[in-house]
């Protein structure tokens, strides 16, 4: 089974370089731009390990790990940080980090540490399921097993293409997803397509989940890049988070 790494780092250059290197060494990689979304991400998918940057503007890695461990979640975590402060390292390890790698680092060392932690983890606990049964945002619940969307407990009819599109969005919350990435994940290739089926699926989704589809709050357009799913329905998120490199887990 392919080992899955969730990389949490606010630097788009680091995200892209590390993701490309890890994928080249056989890992599946998804990304998250900030520690504030870590707990929610782990509620809907279960990576093999989390590589977590310490220094991030919205929520730092130490706070994110503290909150995660407070819930009893023991998923393996490797810290990345530009700090050389021994106190930060000690605090991180005491909170339950499995390893600690200072920046700048050789990506070969990161691969070695990931494999070491995963080997150690495999001897003490069985693998967890990759995806949790459901995901909630606003008044909605996405049931992955039943492939259903419910609003306040009532089923919302969705076509299979619309559910597949929604699933990609909720698995990549607060991450800019380009049209090419959506097309590749939905169709299994990255070739340019001529029909407007993707536009239709997004338009239909917006009509179902948005109060005003002309001013969407959940599926927001990032002009010139793609789309971003905002589970809290925060207006203006596309402008704030669209400046980074568009990636999708």
UniProtKB/TrEMBL annotation:
UniProt entry tagged with the keyword Transcription = yes
Query: Which stretches are labeled DNA-binding?
Result: 132-231
Keyword Transcription regulation annotated? yes
Q: Where is the signal peptide?
A: none
Query: InterPro entries recorded for this chain?
Result: CheY-like_superfamily, OmpR/PhoB-type_DNA-bd, Sig_transdc_resp-reg_C-effctor, Sig_transdc_resp-reg_receiver, WalR-like, WH-like_DNA-bd_sf
Residues folding into a coiled coil are none
Recite the UniProt keywords alphabetically. DNA-binding, Phosphoprotein, Transcription, Transcription regulation, Two-component regulatory system
Q: Which residues form the Response regulatory domain?
A: 4-118
- Which residue ranges does the record assign to the OmpR/PhoB-type domain? 132-231
**Family matches, as PANTHER family:** DNA-BINDING DUAL TRANSCRIPTIONAL REGULATOR OMPR, REGULATOR OF RPOS
Q: What is this protein called?
A: Response regulator
């Amino acid at each position: 089974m392919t080992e899955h790494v969730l990389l949490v780092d606010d630097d788009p250059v680091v995200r892209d370089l590390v993701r490309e290197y890890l994928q080249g060494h056989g890992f599946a990689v998804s990304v998250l731009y900030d520690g504030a979304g870590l707990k929610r991400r782990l509620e809907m998918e279960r990576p093999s390990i989390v590589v977590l940057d310490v220094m991030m503007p919205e929520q730092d890695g130490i706070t994110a790990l503290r909150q995660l461990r407070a819930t009893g979640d023991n998923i393996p975590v490797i810290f990345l940080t530009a700090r050389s402060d021994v106190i930060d390292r000690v605090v991180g390890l005491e909170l339950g980090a499995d390893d600690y790698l200072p920046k700048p680092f050789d990506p070969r060392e990161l691969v070695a540490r990931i494999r070491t932690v995963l080997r150690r983890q495999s001897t003490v606990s069985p693998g967890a399921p990759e995806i949790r049964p459901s995901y909630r945002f606003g008044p909605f619940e996405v049931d992955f097993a039943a492939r259903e969307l419910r609003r306040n407990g009532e089923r919302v009819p969705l076509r299979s293409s619309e559910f597949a599109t929604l699933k990609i969005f909720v698995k990549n919350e607060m991450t800019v997803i380009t049209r090419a990435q959506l097309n590749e994940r939905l169709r299994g290739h990255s070739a340019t397509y001529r029909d407007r089926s993707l536009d239709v699926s997004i338009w239909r989704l917006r009509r179902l989940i948005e109060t005003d589809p002309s001013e969407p709050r959940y599926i927001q357009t990032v002009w010139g890049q793609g789309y971003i799913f905002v589970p809290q329905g925060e207006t203006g998120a596309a402008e704030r988070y669209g400046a980074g490199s568009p990636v999708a887990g």
